[in-house]
Amino acid sequence: MFLNRLENVYKHMELEGLNQAIISDSNAIFYLYGTFLHVGERMIALYLRRGEQPILVLNDLFSFEDSDTRVVYYNDKDFGPDKLLPYISHHEALGIDKSFPSRFLISLMDLHAASAYKTCKAVDYARFVKDELEQKLMIESSHINDLCMEDFTNALRIGMSELEMQEECYRIYKKHGIDRVSFTPIVAFKATAADPHHEPDSKTILEDGDMVLFDVGGVYKNYCSDMTRVFFTKKPTAFEEKIYNLVRKANEEAIKGVKPGVKLSDIDLIARNIISNAGYGKYFTHRLGHFIGIEDHDFGDVSSSSEIIAKEGMIFSIEPGIYIKDKIGVRIEDLVMVTKDGVEVLNEFSKDITILNLC
Amino acid sequence: MFLNRLENVYKHMELEGLNQAIISDSNAIFYLYGTFLHVGERMIALYLRRGEQPILVLNDLFSFEDSDTRVVYYNDKDFGPDKLLPYISHHEALGIDKSFPSRFLISLMDLHAASAYKTCKAVDYARFVKDELEQKLMIESSHINDLCMEDFTNALRIGMSELEMQEECYRIYKKHGIDRVSFTPIVAFKATAADPHHEPDSKTILEDGDMVLFDVGGVYKNYCSDMTRVFFTKKPTAFEEKIYNLVRKANEEAIKGVKPGVKLSDIDLIARNIISNAGYGKYFTHRLGHFIGIEDHDFGDVSSSSEIIAKEGMIFSIEPGIYIKDKIGVRIEDLVMVTKDGVEVLNEFSKDITILNLC
After folding, report:
1. Three-state DSSP state, B241
2. Nearby residues of A46 by Cβ (< 8 Å), 6 or more positions away
3. Residue A47: its H or E element
4. CA A79, CA A10: separation in Å to the nearest integer?
5. Is ipTM > 0.85 here?
6. Exposed (0-12), middle (13-18) or buried (19+): which is A199, by Cβ within 10 Å?
7. Which residue does chain A place closest to B268, by CA atoms?
């Protein structure tokens, strides 16, 4: 068990006013143990209470050993929440991590397991700030993503479909030792990029003159990368160039604003103002960014409603975009890490206007 | 919207004593609409109340249209549960489907959204019985799995690792038009099969004389297959043959017992008794089977504690096994469908002892 991370979790539980909590999210378990336990629909619950040994309640189809933890097994004939009940202090509030399935929570409530139930974000808050090992892996993960982006542009061919290019992406990640992607690679030719969550299709064929958007990330040693770039296949029109440079400016100015102590909502505002002042505010339809680490979307975002204050070691995306239906879609995304006195951009891939020479 | 499926869900809500419920599970949404809405960490909630139009509360990053449904959008600045609140009848109990994340449920409780909160399994119960379209897809899905199993045995080579064979499985599924697997294919050489959830590794190399276990399934038009077979690479020893035939008998006798009206716990018992009476009861460490359909593990199981009564149209696995650590692991699994007066086995792949001639 990473005891320093556990200590951090206890600190955040204290700030939340919680003496006890249940952690069940597989990514949270990975964060604490460095091991994934994929239990499907079966219950897994790590019971935490400072000063006591952590208790992991687990189906006996899975095996797990950790010298700092007491593992309590149940089997398929048992009902998980029953096995958890004896360890919970019934006269105190119980923290429940964000994705514990409602059926188990409702069972615990029916069993009067605790005096109250509160969402416990202690692990999520702990994960906001990446420790040294995590920072190292995130930097390396984004470095590999830079290399793959270069290969993606080289694999583009006139006449291929988005879906074919997506398959190339998987192949290229694999070549770079990446077996798992952070999320299904987004490949968009032409105006399909105007849908920020576009799913590559077999109908959309790359033609000379198209714009190409890649929003891609791979998982390196369980840590995610995520980057978006847009390329041209001929000299951009004045309009395309204007939109591209506007998004780029929003991306770069927002990044410049990142340093410890800054509110992330203010970072969102920097990018949003640039785009709004140019008259395109209504086409920037999403938050500026999201936290990232073990998950592509770690808890926490960079948005107008975010109350998070930048702190050394935080890593999140900066990804402004302009989406005009049937016309154009541009998004430029980097991962950035808050440093002691500023920011480090984890992606080094160029943001200059790039015209690809395709065959 | 599949209105017949919705009607079924309402019937089960009534049996649960619920006038209103929230459905959020992406597979439940697929069941009702035939469309997957993957919203990640964002809230999605389908509010159901018989006699009123279903209301789908959805983040506006996603778009969805259905003539039977009112779609209510919220954006990243809104808090999902706030948007849902006005539609809930506050003086009645509210059903919550099984995997609604606890953070949203706790928020609804804090907002006093309803008088009580109950786990709503109405969609899960409705999904127990596959309708005509689903049965057709399940039959076809298992048929393709049979064909793939044949190709897997042909791809085996002495000297390859489990991981290499697993990659072959992906390739072969793809060749058969299957882009997504029901679950990570389990390939086990030698005694690694004694772990029912063994993860194929690169260390375990196929040698002449090994036993080989495949537990594999693919997703065909969103419906899952799942089958386990064990093969020999030389004449089995008397012990291997005994264990194999015992598991096979448990599989076949349990299947013979399936017909409408039978308790699934009794089906589990048939298989368990056969293995126990031969002295290997303690090595059959898991339930006999699980429901399957849109998910590899649909809700519901075939176990000693199952209270489900077999009904025409139900589809589940029958998969007894014997696992003796460091020695042997055998599991034989078929998918079966309850028919009007008996059972149809969806897998036709032979269960005879098969000795493969490998190079």
Report:
1. helix
2. A22, A23, A24, A28, A29, A32, A54, A55, A56, A57, A69
3. strand A45-48
4. 28
5. no
6. middle
7. A77
**Tens digit of pLDDT for each residue in B189-243?**
999 999 988 999 999 999 999 999 999 999 999 999 999 999 999 999 999 999 9
Show which residues on chain B lie within 8 Å of chain A, measured between beta carbons: 40-41, 60-62, 76-77, 96-103, 105-107, 109, 117-119, 196-197, 285-287, 297, 299, 301, 303-305
Please tell me the pTM assigned to this model.
0.81
- Mean pLDDT (chain B) is 96
Which residues on B lie below 8 Å from A106 (Cβ)? 96, 105, 117-119
Distance CA B197, CA A55 (A): 23
Shortest Cα distance from B356 to chain A (angstroms)? 30
Q: Check: CB of residue B41 under 8 Å from CB of residue A297.
A: yes
User: Is pLDDT at A141 greater than 80 in this prediction?
Assistant: yes
Nearest CA in chain B to A307: B77
> For B204, which DSSP code?
-
pLDDT, tens only, B50-71: 999 999 999 998 889 999 999 9
B53 with B66: CB under 8 angstroms? no
Contact yes or no for B135/B157 (Cβ under 8 A): no
d(C-alpha A94, C-alpha A117), whole Å: 5
Length of chain B: 359
Contact B199, B221 (CB under 8 A): no
